[in-house]
Design a protein that fits this description.
Layout lengths: L3 E5 L3 H13 L4 E5 L2 H11 L3 E5 L7 H10 L8 E5 L4 H8 L5 E4 L7 H9 L2
Parallel strand pairs: 1-2, 1-3, 3-4, 4-5
């Protein structure tokens, strides 16, 4: 089964790194969005199997984007994984309380990121 992943991050380099690392080590299809608003629109259009969402973005941050996704019946059941540049475990707690599937560090291992996602998502 070909999974569809949506990456929402304002940093183009991060979007490209995540897309390449996922596509190189899996058969999943990856879509990218550069803002929370664009990500919401793409989630409605493509109905991905999971969303990787940056925490800190201008205009609309990750938690706000997640809240809006949760409020929409068409996107509320899509699992969301937050990505944060902050790696302290005490930083994860407030985000985990939102109801996201996981909170991961942006310090990823590109060769194993798809495996990490599959494990977190139970795929």
């Amino acid at each position: 089964m070909k999974r569809r992943i949506l990456v929402i991050d304002d940093e183009e380099d991060i979007r490209e790194l995540l897309q390449l690392s996922i596509e190189m080590s899996s058969s999943w299809e990856v879509f990218t969005a550069g803002s929370g608003q664009e990500g919401i629109e793409m989630a409605l259009t493509y109905q991905p199997d999971a969303i990787i969402l940056d925490v800190i973005m201008p205009d609309m941050d990750g938690p706000t984007t997640f809240q809006l996704l949760q409020e929409n019946p068409e996107t509320r059941n899509i699992p969301v994984i937050l990505l944060t540049a902050k790696v302290q475990t005490d930083e994860e707690a407030p985000y985990g309380d939102l109801g996201v599937k996981a909170v991961l560090s942006k310090l990823i291992n590109p060769l194993h990121f798809a495996e990490q996602l599959a494990a977190v998502l139970g795929w």
